[in-house]
Each structure stands twice: as structure tokens, then as C-alpha cells.
Amino acid sequence: MRPVAIVGVGLTQWGKRNDVSLGELIVESAMHAFKDTKGLTPKDIEALYVANAQSERFTEQAHPANLTAEFLGISPKITSRVEMACASGGAAVRNAFFAIASGQAESALICGVEKMCNVPSPEAMRNLCLVEDLTWESFHGMIPPAGFALIASRYMHEYGVTQEQLAKIAVKNHKNGSKNPIAQFRKEITIETVLESRMIAHPLNLFDCSPISDGSAAVILVPAKDARKYNDTPIDVIGSGQFMEPAFSCSNMQSLTTWRALVNAAKNAYSMAKLTPKDMDLAETHDCFTIAELIEYEDLGLCKKGEGPQLVDNGDVEIGGRIPVNPSGGLKSKGHPVGATGVAQIAEVTEQLRGECGPRQVDGATTGITQNLSGFATHHVVHILRRQN
Amino acid sequence: MNEHLAGLPYSLVYPESKVKPFWDNLAQNKFTTTKCPKCGLLWPPKANCPNCGEETSEWIELKGTGEIYAKTQVGASPPAFKAMLPFILVVGKLDEGILVAARMEKANFEDLKIGTPIKIEIKKSFGLDSYIFVPA
Ligand SMILES: [Zn+2]
Fold first, then answer.
1. CA of B48 to the centre of ligand 1 (A)
2. What are the start-end ranges of the H helices in A257-373?
């Protein structure tokens, strides 16, 4: 295995994008990523991974990796679409990481994309319910927010957290997202906005939930030794971890409140990076629901089990706090175009470590962590990035 | 939305399964699951044990009683569930130790706690043999 670095990242505007097709959306983020490098072009790409969860359901277009090859005019020698529902992006980055690390490719492009606003929102919700066990859970009315609401009810019972504390996570992420030009929602909100919004699955209200979005994100990887040729501030991928529980339905998880898959994915990533949670300067985590971000603080080791609510109350996770979480605005405010989310997390941490984030910059950040999940938190991908010396 | 799905939440054809006896047993008013000869009760029922791969041939009738392990009240749903909104969804911990997710009826959400006694009631859903939880 040889070291791997990031030399280009790019995002499109996220939100409703009825001005572009699926392929055009991919091209937008990819071309931003190429312009972010010193001189790399699509023709230089040897490995292509397209992270996409449900293009057939949302746009009827299948085979999006081949679509991407035509739109970018490339013939990659290693390529695949990666479908891991909401963690497709993180999983695609991990595949590309190994393509470079193994020595089989000298450059890799990861494009994450989802165009979800094509269909009416009830149909979008139904599509997302297909990610759960159809026979034993979805059929009984289990919608994704309900799974996380069940988790929240257990957390409230075992450790205690209030709806106000959960609301503060949404307030923080909207505040951060208001400073992110590509974010879907750039409006700050208050605790009352969250508490007074309509109930989706008790104790989660509309503003505890991430939205349905169109968007794309792209990242370019090369061997770390070549990285300075293509970028003045290369960012090394020093840790990569992934873990899946042998559980598809939330009733088969080992614990609803300590996510075994996240604990293990994080352990693997920290171990590869030879670092500990204390070494992290910021985190981009999968806040599909506010309760998810809370548990992620704990299972990533940013605080002890049960101390997540204190982290929120103390402001530790705010920009300027001890360990800022989701300076991009997170899924909550930036948006959640499913396949693009995990790729965009890598892009945000890269830009943070380069010091390019303007009003939402985490000062002096050199090391950051990303975490992307799918299912009822049964599958997680974690990456650790560090600015190259 | 596809027309053929209008009446059903999902295009389920679940009797096309090696665990078809689960629904046949429901029609006989029995709530059952498979048992691995080595590892014990499985949920959901499976024809091969996920722990050891062993084929499961034995069907065990569950008492259907237990307590609430996790709970929520759902206020938004795909179209098929709209008429039921808001509905209660719980994960019940059955006396046999397995966790089962299902809707709960005949209860006020505000009265429910983690640990509240509940039981399975066999009831059709979308015209198919199914089950819900009710207070014990
Ligand atoms: Zn077994």
C-alpha cells in the first residue's frame, strides 16, 4: 500500500436543480474538481467511481458510471458505480483510495450524485423507504425518520437528552450552512423553529430532519508522492475504515444507542492513521437526523458515551469550539443528495485543512475526520485527512 | 407512482419465500418464527441461520407478549400509509428475547413508556396477513 492524497475537490450548487440533467450535474462537480488541480484533465483519469444510490428511481436513468464516462469523454481502466444507499459516497472514496494505494491506478475521480427533486416528495419518501427491510419493517410503516426516532427514544431512556438539546444541533448546522455558498438552506433558525415545526416521527420534527436534494460532489485522488505536481496544498488520506453490522433491520442491531458499526469503522480509521480522537481538529458527520449527530460525537470518540448532550450545551461542536462538527452546515442545512453526501464531506474537510472556507473556517485545522452512514446506522465509512507537510 | 402499487405500500410478493409458513401460520392465528437447531430462535424468520448457516426446519409459536423497547409516533409517510396518520410504531421486546417492529393500535402515544407491557395481535394489513401490537 502506498500513501494517497487529494488534489482536487468540487461541488455544485445543492438544492432543487431543475436546470440540469443527471449527467450535466456530474460534469459540474467534476469540472470544478479538475479546475481545483494544477493541470489535471478528465483524460488523465485511470479510475472512476460514481457514487449514486437510486438514479433509476429518481430519474429512471440506470448505469450512471457509464453516463459519466461519456459526459467526461474518458475511458477509465478501473470503474464502478458504488451503491451503499446514503453511504455510497464514503464507500466510493474508500474504493478509489484502494485503487491508488494498490498501485493499479495513478489517478482516481470519485463523482457522487443524486437528483431527487424530479419526483413528488411523497414518492421520494417512498423511494427512501426501500433502503429498509421491505417485508419486516417498511411494510409496517417504518420510514427512515421513524428508525432514528426509535433510536432517539432509547437514547432518552438510557442517557437522557431533551428535544431542545437536539434542536440546538439543527440550529448550529443552519448557522454554519448560512456561511456555505452551495448550501440548500442558507437561513439561520432558532430552537423554536425546530420545536414548533411539524412532527415527522416523535421526538423528531421537520427541522430535525435533513432534506431531499439535488447535488453532486467530486474528489480527485493521486499517489501522495505526486500530489504537489497537481496541488500546492495536498491533503493526505491517512485513515480509512468501514464496518457493517450483520443487521438489516433496526431490531437486529446490537444496540440502538451505541452504533457497533461506527465504533469499529472509527477504530479501523484511527488505527490506520495512528491517531486518536483527541488529534482531530474538526469532523464532518452524517447528521441525517439531529439524534444521529449526537450519537456520532460519542461513537467517534469525540466525547464519552452519554456526554453528547453536554458537548452541545457547552458549544464544543460550534466553529470556534473544542471540536467543530459539520462546519459545512451538514446534511441538515447543506442538503442530502444521497450519493453525493459522503463525497462532499471529503471535499469540505479538504477545503478546511487548506484554510479556504472563509467565514466558516475552523482556524488552524490540520487534521479532520469524516463519517458517512447508511441504513439504520448499520453501515459506516470513516476517513481521516491531514494536510501534507 | 406506478398504478399497480396503488393499493399496496410496496410491491411485496412475500409468500414467494422459504418462510411462507410464517404467513400461513398467521392465517391460523399463530405468531411463529424459525428456530436454528444450534443457535435458537431467529427473528425475522429465516430458512438458514445467519449465525451458522444451518437450515431451520422447526417453527416455534411465540407467546406474543412482551414490552415496549423503543417507540415513536409517525406523522408523515409515503401515500399508502396516509390514512393511518398519525400512527404509533414500536420495537417490542418479546418474552422470548427477540425484538419485533410493528405498528401499535388501541393506545395513546402519550401513555406509552419504555417497558409498557404489550402483545401481538394478528390483523390483516393492506389485505395481507399481518400483525400489530396492542396494550397487554
Ligand atoms: Zn445457527
1. 8
2. 260-273, 290-299, 308-314, 330-334, 338-354
